[in-house]
Amino acid sequence: MAAEPKVGIIIPVYNSGSYLKECIDSLISQTYGNIIMMFIDDGSTDTSCEIIRSYMENDSRIRLYERSHSGVSAVRNYGLDRAFEDSCDYVAFVDSDDWVEPDFIEKQVTCALSHDADITECGSIYEYDTKTVRKPVSERLLKGNEIIDEMVHFRITNLLSNKLFRTGCFEGIRFPTGMSFEDIAVMHEVFYRSRVYVSNSFSLYHYRVRENSLSHTLTFAMLYDRWAAYIRKYDFLESKGFFEDNRELHDEMLKRVAIPIARAWRWAYGDPKEIRRQHKEKRQEMTDFTRAHYPVFGKKGWDLFLRVGIFLSRFNNTFSILVAYRLQQLVNLFKRNKTP
After folding, report:
1. The CATH fold of domain 7-208
2. What's the pLDDT tens digit per position in 94-111?
């Protein structure tokens, strides 16, 4: 590895013209010099490409790849392929409507080299329209199976953006196309490849929270994709023997799978009848999994709402999703009335 490792920064771009300059300015201002900024345009119809080209004139580290619209997974996969071709030692992912602190890369690389880590993670700063919320992470060093255990218990996030990865962690691994929550669908494999994970206390990544963004738009299709992503995680861990002598880990993973099932039932009745009919087979997949893996009324220790949702998901019919939907409405009403 070179004295100053090369870092490839993968930035998917799709109609980000309103925010792109802030993102680019934060990247070209990095205190760490050996970086390649790979802007991969996913068929934008606004001024995104023009903005990137204007920066390319003064910074040779900036590269622009233009593609027809194919989704964020395909774009990130393309970026990973370029990172391997360019022999990047590390890779980072930055969304084009976010921005980072000037020492985002420097501190992550320093942390990685100090501990010979495959993955480093920093804290994030969530930027809402009316407020800023810091979400730091505690300093930890994990090795081997400890990383998987912390992932299952949500003490390590599936977020890509606040991490630096040794590029080899993605050898043979690519994001699934055509589905949401693609990060959840592959991060278990990336963590499994990692020997050492280190988190630091610095909050270095600014995550712009837009209420109309894809991650904040709830649909049954998205809930199904979230469930499918956790099924991939569950099947992978089971195939690697993680559950054989660790019942607690198995039950915790089953809970992660159960949550999107219960939420799907609480959401489905709000869809038009035609949409519900289209998703009937997907709901049946969830029903089959519920009947095969859970007691009739869920698992002891789960909150009541989750247990009721799992019970109702055993019945793939209009009545069960109507009951779940009405219960959700009652809970929402109670929360609104309780708010001062």
Report:
1. Spore Coat Polysaccharide Biosynthesis Protein SpsA; Chain A (3.90.550)
2. 999 999 999 999 999 999
